[in-house]
DNA sequence: CGGAACCTTGATGCACCTCAAGCATGGTGG
DNA sequence: CCACCATGCTTGAGGTGCATCAAGGTTCCG
């Protein structure tokens, strides 16, 4: 349950190299020159394995580094004082986790692995110095933070003014789009999260998520077998999101 | 209720000095040395007046600068393709507007003045170069972006799992806390936005916002006269937020 | 093979939305 | 300066989308 900063028994003999990583076009190094990439390689020197259910960090933990998802799948969760929880995002390969920690030097959410995963550790102090040196890195980092803000505003729109079907349709389209950018099929996906986690993210109860999946299936938009989803009619999903279907 | 630090009887849109601004402890310059502050003064050289109802920028506009609220009050609004709108935030003196634009070089929301206001323009390219030079400025800027992310996550929690009374109570407590940080009373405030705008922000209809205000008044928690709000029992509001009152 | 975690589906209730009507406020022009 | 009108606010009555409660089914794994 507690985070292990240096996994004791696991030898990370592999030197992690951004320059050799197949995610470099999606991750922090986008657009860097070869020189700059080599400096990144120095900074991002540790990879950490996280088992399903384990957390990279918890709310309240001191902030020291960002984490880039190398393989696997994560959720971030904020908690209210009364125990209510809200999933604020799902992160897949190439995405950055931990930006929340910069503001107060402590993390404000939990980052939990939804399957066995690996993350690359990016010591924050070093990122700041390196991005003073490399304009492109600096700009790319700012873009990533800004993108998170824009994404959050989209979620607010979803939570504030969409109905259950619209929320789930938007969620599925977003997931497939990101999976597609990583070379996966646009029409078949395996959900890494439970109905309850989807519900938490979308501001719905798990029963409503389940019913909505069933409804989409009845309508021939999806084929749903537990966590295996096949999208039969993407355009129909798009229409649902736009409210053009009710 | 509007604060005017230096009543601008002349055209003062010329020279702005962060170093002389009473908001410098809340705004971008937090923690800078005198030297650094002077460089900021060079960068933030234009102030712009915005009349009530006007926008600093619209969704789709090219991104070139950030704006620090000098006086007045703003809302930011994102729109879906079908016309649905969501207020994503309300900004007051010392707060930064426009961070959304970095991600795609275009703004993704509208920033609308809710009263006659003034903003300081911070050319983004210059901010990037200056923050390559000044570590503290760089860090402060990152903190501001991160804070926005954390705030957004809090709004998601609110939208995803709180009921109407809890949302409004949380909203009022947040407003008064920010006003208090600016030297205003913690118990009396004048709302700069309509019930509809509050509702949009909180994911509620204006009638629900109005009814909830009335309910708080009946319960002796607030005194509500249109946009004049007096908080009679702050602890009760806090209890409502925590769900300890239902 | 048995239990835990997860998912589906049905019945019922309620929080909030929708629709509607009337009141308050403030800006504007005669 | 006042009358007028647009905009915003309040309140009521009724409807509905989703939550809640409940029961049973499926899958995974020790």
From TrEMBL, chains A, B:
> Taxonomically, which superkingdom?
Bacteria
**PROSITE patterns (UniProt xref):** CNMP_BINDING_3, HTH_CRP_2
* Annotated ranges, domain HTH crp-type: 162-235
**Boundaries of every Cyclic nucleotide-binding domain copy:** 28-98
Which UniProt keyword terms apply here? DNA-binding, Transcription, Transcription regulation
Q: Which SUPFAM superfamilies match?
A: cAMP-binding domain-like, Winged helix' DNA-binding domain
What PANTHER family does its record include?
CRP FAMILY TRANSCRIPTIONAL REGULATORY PROTEIN, FUMARATE AND NITRATE REDUCTION REGULATORY PROTEIN
Q: What is this protein called?
A: Transcriptional regulator
Organism for this UniProt entry: Sphaerotilus microaerophilus
């Amino acid at each position: 349950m507690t985070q292990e900063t240096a996994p004791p028994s696991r030898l990370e003999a592999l030197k992690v190299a951004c320059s050799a990583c197949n995610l470099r076009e999606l991750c922090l190094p986008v657009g860097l020159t070869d020189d700059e990439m080599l400096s990144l390689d120095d900074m991002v020197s540790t990879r950490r394995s996280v088992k399903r259910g384990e957390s990279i960090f918890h709310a309240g933990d001191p902030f020291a580094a960002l984490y880039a998802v190398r393989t696997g799948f994560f959720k971030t969760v904020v908690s209210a004082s009364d125990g209510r929880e809200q999933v604020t995002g799902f992160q897949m390969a190439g995405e950055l986790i931990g930006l929340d920690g910069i503001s107060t030097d402590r993390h404000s959410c939990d980052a939990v692995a939804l399957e066995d995963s690996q993350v690359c550790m990016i010591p924050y102090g070093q990122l700041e110095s390196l991005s003073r040196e490399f304009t492109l890195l600096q700009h790319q980092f700012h873009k990533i933070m800004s993108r998170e803000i824009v994404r959050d505003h989209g979620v607010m729109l979803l939570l504030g003014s969409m109905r259950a079907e619209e929320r789930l349709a938007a969620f599925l389209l977003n997931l497939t789009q990101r999976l597609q950018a990583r070379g996966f099929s646009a029409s078949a996906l395996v959900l890494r999260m439970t109905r309850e986690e989807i519900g938490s993210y979308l501001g719905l109860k798990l029963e409503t998520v389940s019913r909505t999946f069933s409804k989409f299936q009845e309508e021939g938009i999806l084929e749903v077998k537990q966590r295996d989803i096949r999208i039969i009619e993407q355009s129909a999903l798009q229409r649902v999101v736009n409210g053009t279907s009710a």
